Amino acid sequence: MDARRIFTALGALFLALAMAACSSIPTPQERDALAQDIAARGNLQRHDIDTSVYPLAAWQRLTAPGKPLRVYIEGDGFAWRTRHDPSPDPTPTDPVALRLAAADDAPNVAYLARPCQYRRGGECSVADWTDERFAPRIIDSYNQALDALAASAHSSGFELVGFSGGANVAGLLAARRRDVLNLRSVAGDIDNRAFLDLHRLSAMPRSLDMADEAQKLAALPQIHFTGAKDRIVQRAVADSFRAKAGDDNCIAVREVAGAEHEKGWVAQWPELLRAAPACKTRGENGR
């Protein structure tokens, strides 16, 4: 089935809600300017990373060589312009993960956009931000990006933070690497199959799902923040992922009062960061 007719993207759900309240979408240039302003306020400098698959837009603040590097991975962005038609440019209208990175005062912080966000060229196709947005080749590009960051920062390991669909990317990376120290997600699509089933959306056979790696990830300290008012990625998605990891796991799920899918996170982020991921039994992972 043509990707233009498949309603699978997380961005499509958010767009349907957002368009009811907002009749105009910022231009790509306005979205670029917003990102640059957010990054500047967090002292993040743009240094894009070349991979064998795609160049990835990236912003960094690396001030403590040898210390861990916290890497933020953006959500799906402006993937759809209507409920059935993909956007020609997936650059986010409001880059939540970039806002979180800018609010993080850790000495080593990096932000990675998703493929084709903040970059415009012939290497991209619509499938890269719709039904193939978690394809193996795309996850490979992030693996290469982390290798490049590790070399430039001389880091002792990564702390990964994924927002929305970026959480699935982060989890898939954590399952493939030995240098990931912990994992956080914010409104994260950490069980893509559960998310699609919840909203009765089409399957994504060309994409990977971190929930398939749940048992492999079970021993990694991680905390998944869900918004109490999030109508898009509901807590049931995180609970489904945790259930697939088995009883003996290091997975915490925390519901954040007042948070919606894209709103209510940034102001609370410094406090939420203090809830460091750590191993807990399932009985301790309460609401």
What's this, in brief?
The chain is α/β, with parallel strands linked by helices. It has nine helices and eight strands. Strands 1-2-4-3-5-6-7-8 form an eight-stranded mixed beta sheet, sandwiched between helices.
Account of the 3D structure:
The protein is an alpha/beta fold and 287 residues long. It has helices at residues 10-21, 28-41, 96-102, 136-153, 165-176, 192-198, 214-217, 235-244, 269-273; strands spanning 45-46, 58-62, 69-73, 108-112, 158-163, 180-186, 222-227, 251-256. The chain has a single domain (3-284), classed as 3-Layer(aba) Sandwich (Rossmann fold), CATH 3.40.50. 31% of the residues lie in helices and 15% in strands. An eight-stranded mixed beta sheet has the order 1-2-4-3-5-6-7-8, with helices on both faces. α8 (235-244) links the parallel β7 (222-227) and β8 (251-256). Residues 1-12, 14-22 and 281-287 have low confidence and may be disordered.
Q: Give the strand order, joined by hyphens, for the main sheet.
A: 1-2-4-3-5-6-7-8
The total count of helices amounts to 9
Shape: globular
Outline the biggest β-sheet. Answer: 8 strands, mixed
Q: Bin the helical content.
A: 25-40%
Our estimate of the beta-strand percent is 5-15%
Give the count of structural domains. 1
Write the layout of secondary structure elements.
Blueprint: H1 10-21, H2 28-41, E1 45-46, E2 58-62, E3 69-73, H3 96-102, E4 108-112, H4 136-153, E5 158-163, H5 165-176, E6 180-186, H6 192-198, H7 214-217, E7 222-227, H8 235-244, E8 251-256, H9 269-273
Parallel strand pairs: 3-4, 3-5, 5-6, 6-7, 7-8
Antiparallel strand pairs: 1-2, 2-4
Helix pairs in contact: 2-3, 6-8
